Amino acid sequence: MADTWREQLLPASFRGETFLIEDTSVPVGRKVQLHEYPKRDEAYAEQMGKVARVHKISAFVIGPDCFEQRDRLLKALETEGEGTLVHPWLGQLSVVPGQCEMSHSRREGGMVTFDLTFYPGNAQLNPSVRTNTSRMTAQTSASYWSSALDRYKSAMAKVDTARINLVGLQNRLTSVFSVVTTQFSPLTSAVGSVTSMAQMLMNSPGSLSSLFSGYFSDLGLSSFSSNSSGKTTSASAASFNSYSAALATVSSQAEAAASINTVSAASGADTTAAAQALSNLVQDAVLVQATATIAEMPVAAPPATEETTASLEQQVVAPVERAEVPVANDVIAARDALDDAFWQAALKADATYYPVINAARQQVVRHLTAVAASGVQLVSVTPPETLPALVLAYRRFGDATRDGEVIQRNNIKHPGFVPAVPLQLARE
Length: 428
Description:
Elements lengths: L12 E2 L2 E2 L1 E6 L4 E7 L6 E8 L4 E8 L3 H13 L4 E5 L3 E7 L3 E4 L6 E10 L12 H25 L8 H7 L1 H10 L4 H4 L2 H10 L1 H14 L24 H17 L9 H27 L16 H6 L10 H20 L6 H20 L4 E4 L7 H9 L5 H8 L12 E4 L2
Antiparallel strand pairs: 1-2, 1-7, 3-6, 4-5, 6-10, 7-8, 8-10, 9-10, 11-12
Helix pairs in contact: 2-9, 2-12, 3-6, 3-9, 4-9, 6-7, 8-9, 8-11, 9-11, 11-12, 13-14
């Protein structure tokens, strides 16, 4: 049996702040300018385009906490810019709040009424210049790696390899080798074991740096060049799949970089210096790879808004196609973790290398901040009752296909029973 019209109504809200609606109206149709001429019986109706859909809504908030509800709604109405209006009859709309009127009455204690006006969003803006932070981040990663190679070569040039203790060097490279195998798996066969890596560092330190340069070249990063005669195992070109996968990768890279920030002091100064030089090179390689991953993450474009929302039955037959949007909270968490890893690496850099790594850190933070600004915020929402995830997604977003987002974000055990507890959901 089909739902009644009352059951199909969506809970009204603006920028996530809910309210109740008494009645609403909106002009529709097309603008027409009528031209009448003297001494002529016929008139000319000139079509002037569609009528702007200016929504007039009589709304109210009610309850013991009506003043708190009122203040939150006022903040949403007085915030500059466009926002999402969930209209009970028309679904999600991108609108701009206009002049509204708020009324209090002693006879209607516990209730605050509003006469709301919303204008159509997506207004045409004047041309503006926007910095391509993604491209700048990609360029930064190349210059960063070039400086990292120079530091490694300079450090190894000061090491007397004849005075290196192989066993001591091997012990201090265990964590470094672990990072190489997890973050640069194509190099595992070339490096072999921690013992062979220590021997390569003693006998041919340039071959290790060439392996990493070849690895970056094989990834399709043309800015990196390899001066080795041999090639590492082939790897596919770096590409962006999804924000969630990219952020998980960046978080893992930040953790790996932080784990090898320093090595323990060995019995000999040359052994310690050699181990620290390779540790710095691998740490830089991880951070360069993280920078290249971040450069692939685009700043999300504003989603195209629909005039109306399809019913739940229609979405079952023809699911809504929605471009992925980053979750700002996740992007900021990854940004802060990577920023901390960069800081740890920068604090042990000399005066020549510090500006390079600090410039890379600033560019990474700048781009991830832009990505986060283009994403959505998380808010705490408590369902009024236990609901299926599909129904909750439809009521919250007007999009039943986002039920997986609700389930994954809140670790729901059964998609048919979302408990009435505080949940983390996207604001829009």
